[in-house]
Amino acid sequence: MTLKRQDESTGAWVYRMAYFDGAYVGRLPIEEIFLYGPLAKPEVLKQVVGLEEEPVLEDAYVSRLVMRMWGQQPALVLTNLASDLMTYNASRRIVVDSPPPKIEGKVWYAPHPKYQKKLAEYLGDNYFLYRTAFTTIGKEGVKHNCNGMTFVWWGDMNELMDEKGNRVVGFG
Fold this sequence. Notes:
Hypothetical upf0131 protein ytfp
């Protein structure tokens, strides 16, 4: 196991460890990243990762994650949908209480792994890169289901608030 360097954020370390993980077959993935909050704005993303031109972003959404706030910064949180959205009726059959929430954002095809690393460093220790499914919304509303990466909360859950400013207890 490779130790975390003193000058390295946890997000960057997790990303670097993914390079050595067998799931990635010894290579860093170059793929689509679901972005939300300020990073979903082309001008912000351009500045953060050091691009010469504004990136092309595509409308998208994820479900199966929950949006919380860490101060002014949004944070996607992993949730246990099986317990959050489903209950059993009298005949012990699963009933879906509500569809998973849709978190809107943008998808960017990161042309090089260094950009994923820059995003991880920008977000810092409280976020990590997570593989997820999302839906892109192309021209004329055509939807495509895709797999890619996004950044989810890795910090203290007690620091998060819901969209109304209420402290959140638990994972969803």
